Automatic annotation (TrEMBL):
<keyword id="KW-0805">Transcription regulation</keyword>
<keyword id="KW-0238">DNA-binding</keyword>
<dbReference type="GO" id="GO:0000976">
    <property type="term" value="F:transcription cis-regulatory region binding"/>
</dbReference>
<protein>
    <submittedName>
        <fullName>AraC-type DNA-binding protein</fullName>
    </submittedName>
</protein>
<dbReference type="InterPro" id="IPR009057">
    <property type="entry name" value="Homeodomain-like_sf"/>
</dbReference>
<dbReference type="InterPro" id="IPR018060">
    <property type="entry name" value="HTH_AraC"/>
</dbReference>
<dbReference type="GO" id="GO:0003700">
    <property type="term" value="F:DNA-binding transcription factor activity"/>
</dbReference>
<dbReference type="Pfam" id="PF12833">
    <property type="entry name" value="HTH_18"/>
</dbReference>
<dbReference type="InterPro" id="IPR020449">
    <property type="entry name" value="Tscrpt_reg_AraC-type_HTH"/>
</dbReference>
<feature type="domain" description="HTH araC/xylS-type">
    <location>
        <begin position="171"/>
        <end position="268"/>
    </location>
</feature>
<dbReference type="GO" id="GO:0005829">
    <property type="term" value="C:cytosol"/>
</dbReference>
<keyword id="KW-0804">Transcription</keyword>
<dbReference type="InterPro" id="IPR018062">
    <property type="entry name" value="HTH_AraC-typ_CS"/>
</dbReference>
Length: 271
């Protein structure tokens, strides 16, 4: 998994067995090409979207979705390549002017690209490789390659838009925690960062049917899931990176959140 601030992120995801993954918050536009297995995405009352190898799914960002990553009958692991676009790129002057002049539709929460064009697929892979931390490609060039992907989507009649600002306090808490997952966050410290009293923070979270402890665990576990899928780091190292010194405690929390263990994500083939 590779991230460049202000530009985007790229990941190569592998998963050893079929898993149902519920309530994952996707904040930024994400394009996913399926290489092996199947991917099904559900968002609220919207119709589910399923993609097979050679197809792609575009997630608009700003939504909470459910995933099912499935394996085919041959038993090969699920495999996909992902590209995340930082919303800052949506403000590019030329791209914005083209969007304003076309009748391209904003995608729904999840949109199937049944037959992605070879040009889009090539631009996608070029941008994904350029984002790699080991790449010598300068940020300015990475930016242009990501914009190329956005323009090919526009040619297909799909315009990316900045996700609407969600005023919920729970999302502000998530945004704060995810910047430093290994920090020893407390309700008091988070409330101070948000210029609120602890009592006000807890009350507003309760009004959104959640709590600080639930958000802390959920944010850490969602990131841990991505790291398990998209890296080969040991489970103990991933546990530390999301704030757990004890691998066993991390495994318990992970199972409570997703219903399966951290090692299940990779399966025997990928351990």
């Amino acid at each position: 998994m590779h991230v460049r601030a202000g530009l985007g992120a790229a990941a190569h995801v592998m998963q050893g067995r079929e898993l149902e993954i519920l309530r994952i918050r996707v904040e930024q536009p994400m394009l996913i090409f399926i290489d092996k297995g199947t991917k099904t995405v559900r968002c609220g009352d919207s119709p589910s979207v399923q993609a097979f190898p050679g197809q792609a799914i575009l997630l608009a960002g700003g939504h909470t979705v459910d995933f099912n990553n499935g394996v085919l009958e041959d038993g090969e692991p699920y495999e996909a390549r992902c590209l995340v676009v930082d919303p800052a790129l949506l403000e590019d002057a030329y791209y914005a002017s083209r969007v304003a002049m076309t009748d391209a539709a904003a995608p729904g929460p999840a949109q199937l690209l049944r037959q992605p064009s070879p040009d889009l697929a090539a631009a996608f892979e070029s941008a994904r490789r350029a984002l790699a931390l080991t790449s010598a490609v300068p940020d300015a060039v990475v930016r242009q390659r990501l914009l190329e992907v956005m323009h090919w989507l526009l040619e297909a009649g799909i315009a990316l838009h900045r996700p609407q600002v969600d005023p919920r306090i729970s999302l502000k808490v998530r945004s704060l925690i995810i910047r430093r997952l290994d920090h020893n966050w407390t309700a008091t410290s988070v409330a101070g960062q948000l210029a609120l009293s602890e009592a006000t923070l807890r009350r507003r979270l309760a009004e959104e049917s959640t709590s600080f402890s639930e958000l802390l665990v959920d944010t850490r576990m969602a990131t841990a899931l991505t790291l398990l899928q998209a890296t080969t780091h040991p489970v103990s190292e991933i546990a530390l990176s999301v704030g757990y010194e004890s691998s066993s405690r991390f495994a318990v929390r992970f199972r409570q959140r997703f219903g399966f263990s951290p090692t299940t994500v990779r399966g025997k083939r990928l351990c």
